[in-house]
Amino acid sequence: MRLARMIAVLAGAALPLAACGSGASSGGDTTLTITANAISGGKNAATADWTKNWLIPKFEEAQKAKGKTVHVLFQPNGVDDEKYKTKVALDLKSRTGADVIDLDGIWVGEFAQAGYIKPLAATAGPEAEQWDGWGQIPQAVQGLGIFDGKKYGVPQGTDGRVLFLNKTLFAKAGLPADWQPKSWQEIIDAGNALKKAGVQVPIQIDAGTAMGEATSMQGALPLLAGAGTEIYSGGKWTGASQGLKDVLGFYRQIYTTGLGDPRLQQEAKGRDKSFEEFAEGKVGILAEGDYFWRAVVEPKLGVAPMPDRDKAVGYALIPAERPGAGVRGQDYVSMSGGAVRVLNPYSKNPKLAWELLSFMHSAEATKQGLAGEARITSRTDVNEEVLKDDPMLSFVSEKVLPITSYRPPLAVYPQVSVALQEATAAVVAGRTVDEAAAAYQQKIQSLVGPANVAQ
Questions:
Q1: What are phi and psi of 157, to 5 degrees?
Q2: Average pLDDT over residues 371-400
Q3: 365 & 262 share domain
Q4: What local confidence, expressed as pLDDT, does residue 4 receive?
Q5: Which range of residues forms the domain containing residue 253?
Q6: Distances from the Cα of 181 to the Cαs of 172, 187, 257, 318, in angstroms?
Q7: Same domain, yes or no: 383 and 426
Q8: pLDDT computed for residue 231 by the predictor
Q9: What's the pLDDT at 202?
Q10: Burial degree of 151 (CB within 10 A; 0-12, 13-18, 19+)
């Protein structure tokens, strides 16, 4: 649902507007506010606890050392993401709301186009561009908060997509444990070797609508990037391009030749089942995000724990269709997601709000926000320290993030994503590439208009 329509529909809901938090009290003190979809004891509790118990006291203390009396208030939320999005949009539309705001990166373009947020430099001045923290955030990661070439937000944590492999099955098929394919054909070749060795599911790349956004993020979008194509570029959406057809052809090759299980792509819990089958030694190659390593096959607390994960599970970069054929001429590609923090353009103290925002993304604050967990942050210096004992997450931080790409942060993207999922479902079900591509083209044109679709 487009943002403006969502606001109109939900404006009457019980989502109280908050006055813009920055201002001077009668005693001359200054108050800033932070909001996020986080609440102690509930949704994203760790973020809420860090904000209240560490960030706010530390920032107020730092300001006091400068001779300033600054009070920071936290406005917690613990609601559905769409409700939170609507609340923030209503605040900004009425020129109220918190000074520093958490947003999903996928919302940035939508909010920018609506005029609800402005580039950081336009709100805070040159200090925002001159911040030394940018030097610790890879350019590709900065892209999470960039729209139309301008920085609107500072990225928080992020992730990356890779190819996971079962080393035991690879050994059975005579494949190396340090396998790193250089092309799509080498993935197919490995799949054929696994199939010949009797592996139940040689290759699992999410497809179809039952997998939902996982189909787009774990499979279709990285493959598009590997074909040198972005789903949205130059103000136009990708239609039935050669890149799209190559992606659909790759899916068809996997799922009509016995290299993948087409039924798994149609089951309501097919992704969960693919996790279980990988953990049980039935899947050779699985395209997934680092979440799979951290939370699915994690030896003790994983959804599908693998006690021998560290020895049995390998990982490799996703190759371009051919060397150098990926976006930006890359040999390897990935996709990432994550959240950003933005400034309220109507803050009464925008420069002080920027001080708060940049403090929130300092190395010390970033590390404290992890609460002892090993997770990928946007900062290279922090990642080098906190991920040093986890080779897989270090691999993503060092090798994947510098080459990653992001979904277009536009309102119509979710509908485009569904169309992409439907196209993959069609070829998995046996339709030809041309038929699936033509249906996709027609759907995209109906969504955004023929003039906004490129081939």
A1: -75, 160
A2: 93
A3: no
A4: 55
A5: 161-335+412-454
A6: 18, 6, 20, 8
A7: no
A8: 96
A9: 98
A10: buried
Same-domain pairing of 246 and 284: yes
Q: Predicted confidence band at 157 (pLDDT cuts at 50, 70, 90)?
A: confident
Task: Give the range among 14-18, 101-105, 167-171, 335-339 with minimum mean pLDDT.
Answer: 14-18
Torsion 136-140-145-151 (CA) sign: positive
Contact (CB, 8 A) for 283 and 166: yes
Shortest CA distance to 31 belongs to which of 58, 56, 2, 4?
56
Alpha-carbon radius of gyration of the chain: 23
Distance between CA 341 and CA 322 in Å, rounded?
37
CB 117 within 8 A of CB 381: no
Cβ contacts of 213 within 8 Å, gap of 6 or more: 414, 417
Q: What is the pLDDT of residues 86-131, one digit of tens each?
A: 999 999 999 999 999 999 999 999 999 999 999 999 999 999 999 9
Q: Which two tokens stand for residue 301?
A: 């607390």
Q: How far apart are CA 57 and CA 17, in angstroms?
A: 26
- Find out whether 144 and 157 touch, Cβ atoms under 8 Å: no
Structure tokens given for 75:
């406005």
Q: Are 343 and 354 in contact (CB under 8 A)?
A: yes
Compute the distance between CA of residue 408 and CA of residue 415 in angstroms, rounded to an integer: 12
